[in-house]
DNA sequence: AAGTCCTGACTGACTGTTCAGTCGAGTACG
DNA sequence: CGTACTCGACTGAACAGTCAGTCAGGACTT
């Protein structure tokens, strides 16, 4: 039998995924430009030729890998927010995700990926487009969470979109400091700043 | 005669500077890894070998170039803040610098440089160290400006350091959005958000 | 002559990509 | 059932281009 997981998952799909994951890891570790197809191949124990068999060019593989892990991050956030809770708790979860999960194994070195994504986006319009969409989803997520709070009467009406833009920017900026080990901004302080800002902006207790 | 500018500036110093500037431009345009010594040489119309004559390795040249233009940016900010003015005006100048000057010719594509710096800092501890120092200078600059305002009685006493950290992070985050052409965050809006935040945080009219 | 600045020609290592061909599993056919 | 054929997954080896770094020497200054 050809290895197929429960639901008709083809060997080829598995391979593709393996390659995308391996590539993302490598990008995070060494950077986009320094990631060699040979490295990706070695990590999943195959030949470079096979990588080319699945992806026409190196660039296609690497940009796909970036998209793949962006999407994974966003999906994780969506799931996390499925479960209901108070507005404060849910915002807190988003903050935790931003500053913690990027450190976890599953998103190994996601900080590095984030930076690489920005670098590539600055040069390749297509990547930039993808990033914009991802960021919009992220802000929409924030918007939805806050709106749910308003609907539940947890806070008075506010300009939700405006808050989402400001808060998302603040989170990005703090992420940079935390990722680069700024002695003045560790994870804990970043979280507090983020939550304080949110509570103040939204007039939460 | 060896071309010497007014103040005993050696030809060699001129060359070094030319190379650093050219390298920084190229890094901003193509990225750190994609910048070739041959490109740098061509831009200043010499041979690749001469570049190697001044810099032992490619890496040394490129990281020096990053440092060089970071320092240039910071120096420009310092000068800008030499002239006195109301607190609000001076903060406004910082904001303008952040969102405009990076676009100007002199700092051609400084956005790109910023991203590249973050990428490199994430991987090379030495670069990370440099970046931390630069960022600290930047926050100190903010601190000094605000403190001057307090001393002049323009605002009541506040936690200046805390403000500097928060505001610097916000500026970074907004920079990312602006640099990557986010449709929801153009230069104008970014500036307004930044100034609104500052005025609110500092209780300015 | 000594020293500085500079160059063209070269090389060795690396790496994306191609290609001819292997292997095993299915499948049609007699 | 067995044989021939197809096809997708996969590989080793080679190709062709790129590029950092070297080197021997030239020109110009002091």
What would you say this structure looks like, in words?
- Mean pLDDT of chain A is 90; it is low at 1-8.
- Chain A is 74% helix and 0% strand.
- Chain A is elongated and about 60 Å long.
- The first copy, chain A, is mainly α and 205 residues long.
- Chain A contains nine helices and no strands.
- Chains A and B meet through helix 6, helix 7, helix 8 and helix 9 of A and helix 6, helix 7, helix 8 and helix 9 of B.
- The structure holds a DNA duplex (30 and 30 nucleotides).
Kindly list the characteristics that best describe this protein.
homodimer, 205 residues, 9 helices, DNA-binding
Oligomeric assembly: homodimer
Main β-sheet of chain A: number of strands, strand sense, barrel status? none
Q: Which pair of chains has the greatest number of interface residues, and how are they split between the two chains?
A: A-B, 42 and 43 residues
- Class by SSE composition of chain A: mainly alpha
The radius of gyration over CA of chain A amounts to 19 Å
Number of strands of chain A: 0
Strand content of chain A: under 5%
Report the mean per-residue pLDDT of chain A as an integer.
90
- Number of separate helices of chain A: 9
* 3D shape of chain A: elongated
Q: In whole angstroms, how far apart are the ends of chain A?
A: 61 Å
**Helix content estimate of chain A:** over 70%
Point out poorly predicted stretches of chain A.
1-8
| H-E order of chain A | HHHHHHHHH
